[in-house]
Amino acid sequence: MDIQKDLPDTPAEVIEAWLAPIAEKKDYGWPPTEYNAWRYLLGSRSTLNHLQRMRWGKIEKALNPTMIINRDMDAIRDIFRLHVVGVSMSPSVARPEGSDSFRGHCDYLTENRVFPAPVILEETDAGLHVLDGFYRLCAFFYLTGYLQVENTETQIANVSMKQEVWLGKAG
């Protein structure tokens, strides 16, 4: 499996952080097609051709929930509900290492003000689609006060509103 050969214009950091770990999972493999599990992550864009047309840039971006497409923001809110409130509606976020991941990202952001690694986003007509970084974004939105719970104190941290992200757009 040589993802870089198939996607020569995709930065190695994007491949290593997002594509390679997923390609190694059962039911995914490489390359993505409309018939394997990539369709659950990429939807109608689940083809190698779509990924080959993507153009990438690493930029600093001020992030807020209104930029994120609704489906992805719902997933981020569900991660928040599970790890802050203790209730989740989705079994997909209830992974054993999730709580440690969420807390680790909160600790890192509080101490360093920035993500430990850039989140990977795709610019679409509907907004930003999260390709990699749901837990980092959840911790960020929590610590910046975007996600709150009634009758609890939100731990607003001195986190930089501008974060480094990989932003891809189909060309």
Explain what the structure shows.
The mean pLDDT is 87. A hairpin with a 2-residue loop joins strand 2 and strand 3. The protein is globular. The two termini are 24 Å apart. The protein is built from seven helices and four strands, in the order H-H-H-H-E-H-H-E-E-H-E. The protein has 171 residues and is of the alpha+beta class. Strands 1-4-2-3 form a four-stranded mixed sheet. Helix 5 crosses helix 7 and helix 6 crosses helix 7. The protein has one domain. The protein is 40% helix and 18% strand.
Topology:
Blueprint: H1 3-6, H2 12-23, H3 38-42, H4 48-53, E1 54-62, H5 70-85, H6 98-112, E2 119-124, E3 127-132, H7 134-143, E4 162-170
Parallel strand pairs: 2-4
Antiparallel strand pairs: 1-4, 2-3
Helix pairs in contact: 5-7, 6-7
Keywords:
171 residues, four-stranded mixed beta sheet, 7 helices, alpha+beta, 40% helix
TL;DR?
The protein has 171 residues and is α+β, with helices and mostly antiparallel strands.
Q: State the low-pLDDT regions, or none.
A: none
Q: What's the total count of β strands? A: 4
Q: Report the portion of residues in β strands.
A: 15-25%
Strand order of the largest sheet: 1-4-2-3
How confident is the prediction overall: mean pLDDT?
87
Structural class: alpha+beta
Shape summary: globular
Order of helices and strands: HHHHEHHEEHE
What is the rounded distance between the termini? 24 Å
Compute the CA-based radius of gyration: 16 Å
DSSP summary: helix tally: 7
User: Sheet with the most strands?
Assistant: 4 strands, mixed
What count of structural domains?
1
**Helix content range:** 25-40%
